[in-house]
Amino acid sequence: MAPIYLVFMPDNKQTITATNCYYLEDSLVENNQFKYWNAFFNTIELIPRKLEDNKISKKTSGEGEAYLAADTALYSIQRGEVFLYLLKGGENNPIFKNIYEATNAFHMFGNYSPTQDEAERIKKAEGAVRINLSKTRVKPFETPPGRYANLEFKINELEYVEGEDKKIVEYALGEEEQKKKIISNLKKLNYEKFDIRVWNPDYIKEIISEGDTIANLCATGHYKLGTANVKKQERYSLSFYTQIRIEFMHVW
Q1: In a domain, 123, yes or no
Q2: Is residue 166 classed as helix, strand or coil in its secondary structure?
Q3: Which of 143, 147, 173, 203 is most buried, judged by most C-beta within 10 A?
Q4: pLDDT 10s digits, 117-145
Q5: In what order do the strands lie in the sheet with 21-30?
Q6: Residue 31, in any domain of the structure
Q7: Burial class of residue 65, CB neighbours in 10 A (0-12, 13-18, 19+)
Q8: Model pTM?
Q9: Over the stretch 1-49, which tens digit does the pLDDT of each residue have?
């Protein structure tokens, strides 16, 4: 996949903060000037923004586009079950706080392992959402099952989900009126499905042990799913993992 460019501004910090880092949209160029925006948008802020963009000009080139979000996605095994902890705020993200170490880990292993203290801080943080993935509608995304899994929702059912599915949907879309507004926009733009991508719980059990944790980045965007013989569906997707490569551009 194409790299995400994180643009560092000159403050000599090795930690990403809201004032020194921006996400560069290298596909958007006006008068030979790249557009960029603050990398600290959470999914709940980013999804409405991108839907508003698509109202003006829905992007249909290629198979879709993805945008990095600031949220923390932390996977942990507890009593044999896989839990996903979600927390808003780039200032809370252990990957942003240890960006060089985390990037090296991503390049080598595909995930980043925060320290035990950092993991506990995230789990106990105000606003953290704890989701038992085994009690969601999660299904492997590949055949045979591999590392990727998916929670698939028809747009019309997003308002009525319950249990752990409701927790993960409301984390992404908000509650009550905000959720209804986003669902309405998804319908107006003819999206057929809303997918939430996660690591397959069985994959997590293969790579970490009881009590361990791994962290990953989040991304959101739209894509088309189908084949040459099957009509492609317009889907909006939120991923609590990403394989998008991160590269750095220092601006001095």
Answers
A1: yes
A2: helix
A3: 173
A4: 999 999 999 999 999 998 999 998 877 77
A5: 33-38, 21-30, 4-8, 246-250
A6: no
A7: middle
A8: 0.80
A9: 444 555 544 445 555 554 555 554 444 434 334 344 445 677 777 777 7
